[in-house]
Amino acid sequence: MVARTTVILAVLIVIIIILAGVAAYFAATPRVVTVTKTVTAPGAATTVTVTKTVTVTAPPKLKKVTLSIEYCEPHKDLFKPAIELFKTRARELGYDVEVREIMIPYGVDCAARGTEDLAAGTAGDVIDVDSFMIASYAEAGYLYPLNDFVATWPDWEKFAPAMRKIVTFKGKVWGVMIDTDVRMIWYRKDIFKLAGLPEDWQPKTWDDIIKAALKLKENEDKIKKALGIDEFYPIMIPAGLKWGEATPCQGFWMLLVGADKEPYNRLYDYSKGKWICKSTALWRSFKFYIDVYVTHKLGSPEYNLAADPWAVHRKTFSEGKVAMDLGGSWEFYEGWGPNGIAPLKVCQDQCAGKTGEEYKKCYLDCEYKHIGWAKMPGYKGGAEGERKFVTISGGWAVAINAKAASDPDKLKLAWEFIKIAGSRDIIAKYAAKFAKPAPRVDAIEVPEYAADPYIKAISPYIEFTDYRDALPAYPKVSKIIQEVTQLIILGKITDPDTALEEYCKRLKEVVGAENVVEYPVRK
Fold first, then answer.
1. Of 77, 233, 473, 498, which residue is most buried, by most CB within 10 angstroms?
2. Where in the chain is the domain with CATH 3.40.190.10?
3. What is the DSSP string of 118-184?
4. Phi, psi dihedral angles at 225 (to 5 degrees)
5. Is the pLDDT of residue 274 over 90?
């Protein structure tokens, strides 16, 4: 009995081995195979013959597809690992995919090049797009709507509300955010201390900002002497034409969205489909500029009128010539960090002689002691129904070229790539490498992201951030804001009523009087 059992077990093992070999041998062509084997167990008198008929079916052939992916070189550390993961995923789905990478190099205006490629019909099947251009691209028919895809994608809810809205236009989703930023009030802790202001500072209202600026101005001579500087201004808010889009994005929007309750805190009324020509929020925003640059002379018009105001704002803040600066989250490292454009001399001197990671740690410890950041408060900190705190985000999204939708396989694979590029770990690791806030709220769960105290501190901003009304006409409206704020810093407009009238007049000229709405102004 034992011998017979042994024989049967041996037979089964042999059959398994044979079938595996047959399957491998005949994988290319499905066919029916009969396998017969006679086995005699060692020391046994009996033999067992087993015959088995099997059908060996070849696995499906991988379908060859070429998918082109166009992206900006600054984002290569996100796209390249995503592409490698995508290739594996494509094989799992039955595709032998050839990825054709179109990388727009450093030094080329990526948004402009992307627009040119889309217009010429040469853009990639998957494209890296400036979220600022989403509405214009959608209106032009360049993008494929993703509503059906995101509706069944659990990860979509992991993106902050503003990150979902920023890629939505006319009720349709046109992309998935992969890269973003936030804005805040940067301030010099050491200068605040000299003026008797708290080093751990968080204004609750706009008045708190003005009061702090006036206190700094009172101590101007003391500050200049302590820092060895020849000029000093309490605050800088981007204004005028030289900044371009940074004037509204870094400055005006930071005021506007906190100046009144919704929906009166925007440039565009979505319910009416019209641009807002007059409102309390617009009036208050212009008044704040006038308070800073005209009434109290707390900021420098010349800094805003410089040929390169970006360079000036970084340099003057680093030197201590400006104590408060409305700016972006990238500045902590890119602007004033150990390898920044305008590093702090006091930190360089303090860490002299150190190299590598030792220098970086020493410098950052020093930078944290000298530079602080605060959330921009609403007009009265929410007391009138406006937001308690505000910030504005821009950034980049990955989208599908509408031309790719004509090929079902390309469309399917394009979405598979977007899911990978927009996954938690890919986004978080990229954001961590460049000290950026991630558009996904769960990025904080990734160790590399959570390890940086600066990133960890600014990540909550994503949960209350907002976005610009980047509709097709927005660039022209933005230009009007730049023009009116330039008139303010030049002293040609000295009161908010005149500023609002000038804005409204120019807005009507650009978008048409029939396309604007006016609201009562509370002064």
1. 233
2. 64-182+393-461, 185-386+493-518
3. HHHT-S-SEEEEEGGGHHHHHHHT-B---HHHHTT-GGGGGB-HHHHHTTEETTEE--EEEEE--EE
4. -65, -45
5. yes
Asked if the model's pLDDT at residue 32 lies above 70, the reply is no
Q: Mean pLDDT throughout 498-512?
A: 99
Paired tokens of 362: 């020493």
Cα–Cα distance between 446 and 426 in angstroms, integer?
10
The residues pairing with 322 across neighbouring beta strands, listed in sequence order, are 233
Task: Report how far apart, in Å, the C-alpha atoms of 468 and of each of 126, 317, 329 are.
Answer: 24, 26, 17
Q: What is the pLDDT of residue 60?
A: 72
- Residue 442: which pLDDT band, with cuts at 50, 70 and 90? very high
Topology adopted by domain 64-182+393-461 = D-Maltodextrin-Binding Protein; domain 2 (3.40.190)
pLDDT digits (tens, 9 = 90+) for 333-374: 999 999 999 999 999 999 999 999 999 999 999 999 999 999
404 contact partners, CB below 8 Å, separation of at least 6: 125, 126, 144, 410, 411, 414
pLDDT at residue 509 greater than cutoff 70 = yes
Q: How far apart are CA 48 and CA 407, in angstroms?
A: 56
What does the mean pLDDT of the chain come to? 92
Cα separation of the two ends of the chain? 103
- pTM equals 0.85
**Calpha distance 373→458 (Å, rounded):** 9
> For residue 350, with 0-12 CB atoms within 10 Å meaning exposed, 13-18 middle and 19 or more buried, which class applies?
middle
Buried b (16+ CB within 10 A) or exposed e, 91-110: eeeebebebeebbbeeeeeb
> Over the stretch 449-460, which tens digit does the pLDDT of each residue have?
999 999 999 999
Regarding the domain delimited by 185-386+493-518, which CATH topology (the fold level of the hierarchy) does it fall under?
A: D-Maltodextrin-Binding Protein; domain 2 (3.40.190)
State both tokens at 411.
């469309």
pLDDT of 264 strictly over 70: yes
Q: Which residues of 484-501 are buried (b: 16+ CB within 10 A; e: fewer)?
A: bbbbbbeeebeebebbbe
- In this structure, what token pair is assigned to residue 146? 């993703």
